[in-house]
Design brief:
The complex is a heterodimer of chains A (292) and B (391). Chain A is of the alpha/beta class and 292 residues long. Chain A has seven helices and 15 strands. Chain A starts with 19 loop residues before the first strand and ends in a 5-residue tail after the last helix. Chain B folds into two domains: 214 residues, no CATH class; 111 residues, no CATH class. Classes of the chains: A alpha/beta (292), B alpha+beta (391).
Chain lengths: 292, 391
Amino acid sequence: MTTAAADARVRDSGDPMVPRRYAITRVREDTRDTFTLLLDPVNGETLTFRAGQFTMLHAFGVGEVPISISGDPRGVDSDGNPAPLEHTIRNVGAVTRALVNAAPGTEVGVRGPFGTSWNAADAVGGDVVFVTGGIGLAPLRPAILDVLNERERYGKVLLLYGSRTPGDILYGSEMRRWDDLNDVNVQMTVDNAPYGYKGKVGFVTELITRAGFDPRQAFAFVCGPEGMMRAAASALTGRGVPASRIRLSMERSMKCGIGLCGHCQLRELFICVDGPVLSYARLEPLMKVREL
Amino acid sequence: MDDIRILTPTDLGTLIVELRTSGFRVMGPTRRGDAIVTAQIRSVSDLPQGVGDTQEPAEYRLHDRDDGAYFGFAAPAQSTKPVFFPAEEVVWRGRRDHERGGHFTVERDTVDAAPIALLGVRSCDLRAVQIHDQVLSARHFRDAHYTARRDGTVVIAVACSHPAATCFCASLGTGPRPAAIDPQTGQPSYDLLLTEVIDDAGHRFVAEIGTDAGRELADAVEAAKGTETDRAKAIEITDAAAARQTRAIDRDNVHGVLKASAESTRWEDVASRCLACTNCTMVCPTCFCTTVSDVSDLAGESAERHRVWDSCFSADFSYIHGGPTRESTTARYRQWITHKLSSWQDQFGMLGCVGCGRCIAWCPAGIDITEEAAALGRMSVLGSPASAAMT
């Protein structure tokens, strides 16, 4: 008769449900409600990740939230030293409030990285169009850094960025640096501007129709609120970019990050393992149905 | 495994003793209040002998039987799901040390080590376990606790002789006799399959052997040899049970029907009846959605992460900052039935419904999954009116 081994049935090491400990080295205030958490591992090396992946960030005793990693996938700073793990988060709930208000040195839990990648290298040889709004720039930043790291392998690189107000612009100085030093065509627009604002006012999708890129050779990476992504993807296909060359990062409720809890399902997709980055060719029919 | 054995009711008692002596935690049907549930079986007297059930939309009643049958009922109120996948369990326990800058430690909870013997599991529920094996234990990431609890399970299945009015396993090919082989893994579905026979020749169980472990169990209780006539009798009983089922799901077309029905007007109709109470998901043997809750003490020094069954019918389920993705009951019912009867197949290669009928019996509004699927079929060009109307 089969008898079950009673010992060591559950291995603790590398268990995807157990958070690893990271210490907060700094909380950087990016805008009035958006902060970047810089984390160093308490034991061992920092995790390696691919652009587009996310982790489950845990505030001890409060809870856990899925957050895209916003740092450089190379994992090193400009001097070649291990870079802290970066997450840019909006202070909108109990867990994010606990995370952004934590003092340096506080330990937080990290599970992951989970999910699919932007795989920006698929765009090599053609133009690259990043379309994003608000905090949607954070999950795209690792892909932008991947492209800029090998800038010469790509054609034109465009970053079309929309935010609610000029005060909500994320990574503003870094975007200007990309424009100045890395030959990135950065175009910004805001939904609402104060009196005297000199920049562009309007929706980010309006930038797509006039942007200078070759749609037949281009790859587009889109991240933002779902309505904005739907409009952006539609504008991109309208310009002639094939749906298979448009990628979106989807947001859904997630409790496990590993395809078990069921919360993130979008019909047959588990966004946490099949996504968050998915081809618009796959998403288009699903995004057309309300409340799917 | 062409071997047929015959167990007497006394042998059934001996079988339970044998399993317990071998270190198994025996889980099977027992009466608790006015329902049959799945719980630990310590002796044959724990089985619901002489108890039958009536199940209709929004109705579940027990009644006495005069034949002394041990398994004279249909799907128990709760399936075997909680045996391997409890409604709430601790994932890990952690402690934080305020003296040392919030340093914390986390310890993974481990499961009770005793292997499980499923006694008297119905074909529908056994199929549901096989489906859970695929969902929770066969993909890249596994549920560690589920996988540990499933390790070394012995299955003594009982073919269903008394389907309820809510049952439709025959239409889905998931019962009333379990398939000998799990189609996903190619492994035997059961160690022993019992069919309870009560006739002029007496009260007995025809035992079909599924594995060597099953044969050893039959040997251990010194079960008598049976014949092909006994097997024919067993098959006659399950054939009759299949023939008595009046509800059905059109297995061949339902996947396509649901996929094509996302914008059907039927959703408003069913949502006007659905209370979004989550009962169907709580009694469903395949529903696997869970949430986590972090429980901490007031000082914030110790915390536990609990994994708790969740339901796609709750408003919280799809909540992200800004509001739930599926705000209306219309969208939530559509999600549930579409997952069961269509997208589950895309995800895991089989339907997520085993035809146990619990969602029909335990729905306070009596919403009937077979009726909804048939209505969607009739309203869809893909529907097959002939089989949808099979009642």
